[in-house]
Amino acid sequence: MKRILTMQDLSCAGRCSLTEALPVLSAMGLETAVLPTAVLSSHTAFKNVYGTDLLDTDREILRSWKENGITFDAIYIGYLGSTAAVNVAQEVIVAFGNKIPILIDPAFGDHGRLYRGIDEDFPKTLCTILTKATIICPNLTEACFLTGTPYREDFSDPQYQQLLKKLASICDGTVILTGIDTGNGEIATLLSSGDGGYEKCAIAKEPASFHGTGDLWASAFIGACMRGMPAMDAMNLASRFVKKAIHITLLDHGEPLFGTEFERALPLLINALPRDRVGGGD
């Protein structure tokens, strides 16, 4: 069974970050080790949030892992939220990231705005580790902040190509742009081809948005990749999974603030995985 390390916060209420990554990756047949950067009473879209960072504890965990000879087959880094957390992520990559896939989801904003509590200089700080990633998957807002591109929701095809080129100058690995509203009833994900072009995965858009769907997508995508699926197939599966989770939640009249009822969509992921590699393969 393959082992993946995921580093992000633990929000005690409201589905996002580790409360999504851990069950999704585990359901996909991967041993999942967690490095929580902070414990929050809920994610930051709630009005009143209590939190404490765990970065000093994280460094002791890293030391213990190294002393015990623990290794990983992939690293998945999500929401960090501070320069101090980025510094610890750098230590994670140096200690455990040699010759393995490293997915970094630069989770710090959406809809043209930074998340609450994120400093305006944070995107520039985050670039210091994005250069070490083998895969990055920003949404449109994050891509614009990372590249200094004015945000808009109606980019033309050449403008998307230019944005992907700018992202590729930050990370020379796989560059994916997520959550693109095409304006014709679809949500698209763009995979840079490295020469200015891209491949597109598009699915029908659900009539609502929920917190935590970016974390769901990234978790399902890296899980599918680790189970041997090509990038485009993994993108398609992750997108279908998120759509299914939103659809189920809408039918149940779920609250957007608490995220999707993704737990009920996990069979879609499990049933789509290659049958000849049960348990993640070795």
In short:
By secondary structure, the chain is α/β, with parallel strands linked by helices. The protein has helices at 18-27, 55-67, 83-96, 122-130, 140-147, 157-170, 213-226, 231-251, 266-272; strands at residues 3-11, 31-40, 51-53, 74-77, 102-104, 109-110, 113-114, 135-136, 174-181, 186-192, 198-204. Helix 7 (213-226) packs antiparallel against helix 8.
Structure description:
- The chain is of the alpha/beta class.
- It is 39% helix and 20% strand.
- It has 9 helices and 11 strands.
- Helix 3 (83-96) runs parallel beside helix 4 and helix 8 (231-251) runs antiparallel to helix 9.
- The protein is globular and about 55 Å long.
- The N and C termini lie close together (6 Å).
- 44% of the residues are buried.
- Mean pLDDT is 94; it is low at 277-282.
